[in-house]
From TrEMBL:
Lineage of producing organism: Eukaryota, Metazoa, Chordata, Craniata, Vertebrata
Pfam families reported for this sequence: RNase_T (PF00929), RRM_1 (PF00076)
UniProt-recorded name of the protein: REXO5 exonuclease
PANTHER family: RNA EXONUCLEASE 5, RNA EXONUCLEASE REXO1 / RECO3 FAMILY MEMBER-RELATED
Record keywords, A-Z: Exonuclease, Hydrolase, Nuclease, RNA-binding
The organism of origin for this protein: Ceuthmochares aereus
SUPFAM superfamilies referenced in this protein's UniProt entry, alphabetically: Ribonuclease H-like, RNA-binding domain, RBD
Record GO cellular component, one term: nucleus
Gene name of this polypeptide: Rexo5
InterPro entries: Nucleotide-bd_a/b_plait_sf, RBD_domain_sf, REX1-like_exo, REXO1/3/4-like, Ribonucl_H, RNaseH-like_sf, RNaseH_sf, RRM_dom
A Gene Ontology molecular function term of the record: RNA binding
Domain RRM: 471-545, 566-644
């Protein structure tokens, strides 16, 4: 977590803008961890990266911040779930910068060097002392008991442990006899499907030390199946229809089959035991046995080929064969025990893997790109590996990125629309495949009919006009010759005023006040309507236009936005008060986490308002009651719930301080065309929000999900 001042700046608009290099830092570290020199992002922090189940990037092409706020009410799910939002600096080469193929000006943030074959990544065969296997086990041969996981290792790697809270109803194998170097080995592997409960077993295989299959049984899950994972498990709905065997039946059979001193062997066996809901005290995990640096693991398919010379998990077969996988894991453990760590280290598995993956990436580059993506033509002469990008790095670490969408890169690296794949079809494929992938990029698109420049200009003008109306209030009527200074002072207590004008076209004078922040305008409506100001009992209201008919609904939704949870707005401060003064005044408020005193982004001067963020929502509500009417150094305070988060606050300021091009009559002619397609656009946005909702619900826990609005450029 960053320091309080850094956090407050990000929350309230001064530091809410990030560049593509910073986004790249986040995705790179989330996906790779400390592998390949990936480091924590410079602008935020990910805790327990190794616990991330996956990374999902959803790209909403042709959409920008303009669309998010124009259709704020339609993005019902998006704004209620995603609480961290940042402005993204424009990029002429968006997709290329995301994938790491350029667009990252800082060398340390690019993908260059991530797939390096230097000695830093690959240990030399002549220097076995640096090999992680030798560092872990030494060079001498040892018996099998030296390679079983200790209790601490089992806890660290999420193995079910007897007596632990999460394993209360798990079945214990009761294999309690002491292990010796002659204890029997058994290979175990399961195939799982995704259900409402999580991962549930659909097939179990057990093999003995001679490779004989003792158990190969289909199992019917208890809960509703969401995804059979047929591509990996080979299991289909049809296969499970006649099956009567349930998990308790398998648990009973395994307990009977295993001798009291049995040692179970498997590849990432913790997942199998968790799915079986069984506890076994003595295991050898081949994904940990063949140790790598920085917690990385070799895949079973690679180890079987590199160590045993066997091809398993053939792509020609439908799904994995658990008996084959159990047998491969068992033989790998037997090889390790018989040959010893030194012989295994001499295989130089790291170099074999990197060489194999780079060759695969080189040959299949086109297949790894988004649909239609083409590689740049290589120079004449000796062939060279293409410049590694983010996706290449994932390939080298054994992860297969999932790329779905309607965008492709042309030869210059710019994206082009490919409307042949509808969003609905992309969603369907994403729902099936995203839970199986550790890194996914899902691209949805509005379509070319919604990106015409005059339509965007019209949308921009509508949003600008509505924001201006929401920041504006009319107050009156006042008596002739009323004191304008006292009116400005009273309305100024609600927040910073951008301009105040007197309306004289009416029978009696009115004033028009345009504020700089939404909270100030809303506070004026709530606190000054019906109040006596400058000798007159006045009415305070916003402009009444067609666009403002849903203003109350919009204000309510902004107030309930997750970004504004626990945040309140305080106005009426003297400009002479410093942040230190306010910290001292508000220190008695319970659970106060951050105080932010906004500045004028042009002059750098403090405004007469501040924002307070509390650790708990209830504490924020309690603070509202205390602060309203509170006097700080002679200044009476007013407060309410916050409405505008950092990026919106900054965006409003930019819109207020930019002249913008007015299109005159031609713009208003185009407004009619805009109205015709705006209804269709609103429907499309609703559909996209629903797509994101469906996809989000399918994600595993601990998934980092990033939604991007890249705009049309």
């Amino acid at each position: 977590q960053e320091k309080s001042s850094r956090l407050s700046a990000a929350l309230f608009g001064e530091d809410c803008e990030i560049g593509h290099d910073q986004l790249y830092e986040l995705l790179k570290y989330a996906a790779l961890g400390k592998c390949h020199n990936a480091t924590q992002p410079s602008w935020c922090r990910i805790y327990h990266q190794s616990h991330l189940a996956g990374v999902v990037v959803i790209v909403l092409h042709e959409m920008s911040q303009l669309h998010f706020y124009k259709f704020y009410l339609q993005f019902k799910h998006l704004r209620k779930v995603f609480r961290h939002r940042f402005m993204l600096t424009p990029s002429a080469n968006f997709l290329a910068s995301l994938y790491g193929e350029g667009g990252n000006p800082k060398p340390q943030n690019t993908a260059q060097g991530l797939t390096s074959t230097s000695g830093e990544c690959i240990p030399k065969s002549s220097d076995l002392q640096c090999d992680p296997i030798i560092r872990k086990y030494g060079e001498k041969k040892q018996g099998l008991t030296s390679y079983t996981l200790t209790l601490e290792e089992q806890k660290k790697n999420d193995y079910p442990i007897k007596g632990s809270p999460g394993c209360k109803d798990y079945v214990y194998t009761e294999c309690d006899q002491p292990r010796t170097d002659s204890s029997p080995l058994f290979g175990l592997d399961c195939e799982m499907c995704l259900t409402a409960k999580g991962n549930e077993v659909t097939r179990v295989s057990l093999v003995d030390a001679q490779g004989q299959c003792l158990l190969n049984e289909l199992v019917k899950p208890e809960s509703t199946v969401w995804n059979y994972r047929t591509r990996f498990s080979g299991i289909t709905k049809k296969m499970l229809l006649p099956v009567k065997t349930r998990l308790p039946d398998i648990q009973t059979r395994l307990k009977k089959m295993l001798p009291r001193d049995a040692v179970l062997v498997g590849h990432s066996l913790n997942g199998d035991l968790q799915a079986l809901e069984m506890i076994h005290p003595s295991v050898i995990d081949t994904s940990l046995l063949f140790a790598r640096n920085e917690g990385r693991r070799f895949k079973l398919k690679f180890l079987a080929k590199a160590v045993l010379g066997k091809e398993i998990q053939s792509e020609q077969k439908l799904g994995h064969d658990p008996a084959e996988d159990a047998r491969a894991a068992l033989e790998l453990a037997q090889f390790f025990i018989e040959q010893g760590p030194a012989k295994v280290a001499e295989l130089n598995l790291e170099m074999l893997l990197t060489t194999e993956k780079l060759a695969e990436v080189s040959q299949n580059k086109a297949a790894l790109q988004p649909q239609g993506c083409s590689m740049q033509k290589q120079l004449n002469g000796p062939s060279h590996l293409p410049k590694p990008c983010f996706l290449d790095c994932l390939q080298v670490t054994g992860q297969k990125p999932l790329l779905l969408g309607r965008q492709k890169l042309d030869s210059s690296g710019h994206h082009q629309s490919n409307t042949s794949t509808p969003n609905k079809q992309i969603l369907q494929r994403a729902l099936e495949n995203v839970p199986l992938s550790t890194f996914s990029i899902i691209q949805f698109s509005l379509g070319p009919e919604y990106v015409a420049s005059h339509l965007l200009a019209g949308l921009s003008e509508k949003v600008r006009s509505k924001l201006t109306d929401m920041l504006t209030i009319y107050a009156g009527p006042f008596e002739e010759g009323f004191c304008l200074k006292s009116v400005k002072k009273e309305f100024g207590r609600c927040g910073p005023i951008q301009c105040l004008t007197v309306i004289t076209e009416t029978n009696q004078p009115y004033v028009c006040v345009q504020y700089e922040v939404l909270e100030a305008a809303q506070l004026a409506v709530e606190s000054l309507n019906g109040v006596e100001v400058a000798g007159s009992c006045i009415k305070v209201q916003r402009p009444v236009t067609a666009a403002m008919l849903d203003c109350d609904v919009l204000i309510k939704e902004l107030e309930l936005d997750v970004e504004n949870e626990g945040v309140i707005y305080v106005a009426g401060l003297k400009k002479s008060l410093t942040e230190t003064d306010l910290q001292e005044e508000f220190s008695q408020l319970k659970d106060l986490e951050t105080l932010f005193l906004p500045k004028d982004l042009q002059t750098g001067k403090h405004r007469n308002c501040c924002f307070l963020k509390f650790q708990k929502s209830q504490s924020a509500l309690d603070a509202l009651e205390v602060i309203n009417g509170w006097t700080v150094k002679g200044s009476k305070l007013r407060s309410r719930n916050a409405l505008a988060s950092g990026h919106l606050w900054r965006w409003i300021w930019q819109m207020n301080h930019s002249n913008g091009e007015q299109g005159g009559n031609s713009l208003y002619e185009k407004m009619e065309q805009l109205s015709d397609c705006e209804q269709d656009l609103r429907k499309e946005v609703k559909k996209l929000d629903h797509h994101i909702k469906k996809l989000y619900r399918r994600l595993q826990n601990n998934t980092l999900c990033v939604v991007l609005f890249p705009g049309v450029n």
